[in-house]
Write a structure and sequence with these properties.
This protein is an alpha+beta fold and about 400 residues long. The chain has three domains: about 190 residues, Nucleotidyltransferase, domain 5 (2-Layer Sandwich); about 70 residues; about 90 residues, General secretion pathway protein M, EpsM (Gyrase A, domain 2, 2-Layer Sandwich), CATH 3.30.1360.100. About 45% of the residues lie in helices and about 25% in strands.
C-alpha cells in the first residue's frame, strides 16, 4: 500500500467516524442559518461552489449543462462525429462563455442503466467499506469486482446499531468505458461520473462512479488556502504566546525590581527605626538610671539604720549592675541577714563565703551581697512599713491612756 492510499484510508475512516456523530447535521443547520442572514449577493457567491458542467451523451451528440444552485440549464451540444480538434474547439467555446470556465466536469448517465441495491453489513466494516464491497461484489451482484465501477452511500444510523445499510450503485465497466471513450476527444478530463436522479438535466444522485486513478487531478485551491490560513493562524498563535510570555517576563522583572526596592526601603526604615530607638534609649539612659537607682545617701542612711552599733564596714561596693557588696566586722554577723531583710530599699541579702572570726578584734568578719529593690517594690515596701509604724504608734498611745 502506497503512502497516498494509506492516507486516503485513514481519511475515509475519520470521515466515517465523523459522520456517525451529530456534528454534521448540527454544522449543516448552523451553516444554513448563517447563510440565510447574509445579503443576496453574498449568498450567490457562496452558492457558486455547487456550480459544475454536466455532460450527457444523446445519440451522437454530447449535451453540456450548466449546474447552479437554482438548477441546470443547457449550454449547447458538441457533435461527436466531427474530428477531435473540432470537438475540442466547440467545447472550448462553450466553456469560454462562462464567467468561471474551470468548473468541475461531471459525466451523467441514466440511473436506469445502473444496478442499485441496499446491502446490510456489520458496523465494524464501516471504516473500510470500499474494500469490503469489493470483496462482496460477486455475492451481492452478478458481476465481479473487476467488471464494474461502483460507488455507495451509507444510510443514516445510530452509532449503537450493529449493522449499517449501504446503498450500492454499480455500472458495467465495459459499457461506461465505451461511452467515455466516445467523448474523450471533446472532454478528456472528467472529475466524476454520476447518475441523473430523475430526468435528464435535473438533479444528480451525488455519486462518483469514476475510479480515483481516472479522475482529473485538480489543484485544491481551497485546501491550499485553508492550509495557508491554518499556518498563518499557527504563526499568529505562536507569536501571541511568545509576546504573552515576554510580557509576563517583563512584568515579572518589573515586579521583582519593585519588591527589591520595597525590601531596600523596608530595611532602611528598620535601620532608621533602630537608630531612633537607640538614640532615644541613649538620651533616656541617664534619666532612667537616675530615676530607677536609689541615691547613695538613701543607701547609707538605710544601712546606718539597719546595722547595729557593734558593726562597722570596711568596704562598701556598688557595681554597674546595682549589686551591693558589704565587707566588715560585727559581734554577731549571723543576725545581720535578718536585719537587712527588713530593709525597704535592699533585697536578697546573702553571705558570700563563710563568717570567720577576726583574731585581732575578736569580731566576726563577714562578706554580704545585696540587690537594690525595684523602684515600685521599694515604694510599696516603704508604704507598708509606714503603715505598720503608724499602727504601732496608735497602739502604743492607746495603752498609756489609762495610766494618766
Amino acid at each position: 500500500m502506497t503512502l497516498t492510499e494509506a492516507l486516503d484510508l485513514q481519511l475515509a475512516r475519520l470521515r466515517t467516524r465523523y459522520a456517525r456523530t451529530p456534528l454534521p447535521r448540527y454544522f449543516a443547520w448552523w451553516g444554513h442559518e448563517l447563510v440565510s442572514l447574509l445579503p443576496e449577493r453574498w449568498r450567490a457567491l457562496l452558492a457558486e461552489r455547487a456550480d459544475a458542467l454536466l455532460l450527457d451523451a444523446a445519440g451522437r451528440e454530447m449535451v453540456v449543462w450548466r449546474q447552479t444552485a437554482q438548477g441546470s440549464t443547457e449550454l449547447g451540444r458538441v457533435n461527436l462525429d466531427e474530428p477531435a480538434e473540432a470537438q475540442k474547439a466547440a467545447f472550448a467555446r462553450l466553456r469560454s462563455a462562462l464567467d468561471a470556465p474551470d468548473l468541475r466536469r461531471i459525466y451523467c448517465i441514466d440511473g436506469a442503466r445502473t444496478l442499485r441495491r441496499v446491502v446490510s453489513l456489520p458496523a465494524a466494516a464501516e471504516d473500510n467499506l470500499r474494500q469490503v464491497l469489493t470483496f462482496e461484489m460477486d455475492r451481492q451482484t452478478p458481476f465481479k469486482a473487476d467488471q464494474v465501477y461502483f460507488d455507495y452511500r451509507v444510510a443514516p444510523h445510530a452509532a449503537s446499531e450493529r449493522n449499517v445499510h449501504v446503498e450500492l450503485t454499480v455500472v458495467p465497466r465495459a459499457q461506461l468505458d465505451a461511452e467515455l471513450g466516445a467523448i474523450a476527444g471533446s472532454a478528456p478530463m472528467l472529475d466524476a461520473v454520476d447518475c441523473w436522479s430523475d430526468v435528464r438535466g435535473g438533479s444528480r444522485l451525488g455519486l462518483n462512479l469514476l475510479p480515483a486513478e481516472r479522475r482529473y487531478a485538480r489543484k485544491n485551491l481551497r485546501l491550499r488556502l485553508n492550509l495557508g490560513l491554518a499556518a498563518a493562524a499557527t504563526v499568529l498563535l505562536a507569536t501571541c504566546m511568545l509576546l504573552w510570555l515576554d510580557n509576563r517576563a517583563s512584568a515579572l522583572v518589573a515586579m521583582q525590581a519593585d519588591v527589591a526596592k520595597a525590601q531596600t526601603d523596608a530595611r532602611q526604615v528598620s535601620q532608621l527605626r533602630k537608630t531612633l530607638q537607640n538614640t532615644v534609649d541613649s538620651a533616656n539612659f541617664l534619666g532612667r538610671k537616675k530615676r530607677d537607682t536609689p541615691l547613695m545617701v538613701d543607701l547609707l542612711e538605710d544601712l546606718s539604720r539597719r546595722l547595729p552599733d557593734d558593726t562597722y564596714l570596711e568596704r562598701l561596693n556598688v557595681d554597674d549592675k546595682d549589686k551591693i557588696e558589704l565587707q566588715g566586722l560585727s559581734d554577731d554577723a549571723s543576725k545581720l541577714i535578718g536585719l537587712l531583710n527588713q530593709s525597704t530599699l535592699l533585697a536578697n541579702p546573702g553571705v558570700q563565703g563563710t563568717i570567720q572570726p577576726d583574731p585581732r578584734t575578736k569580731k566576726d568578719r563577714f562578706n554580704i551581697t545585696l540587690d537594690f529593690r525595684a523602684l515600685a517594690d521599694a515604694q510599696a515596701a516603704a508604704a507598708k512599713a509606714a503603715t505598720a509604724k503608724t499602727a504601732s504608734a496608735k497602739a502604743a498611745g492607746g495603752t498609756h491612756a489609762p495610766g494618766q
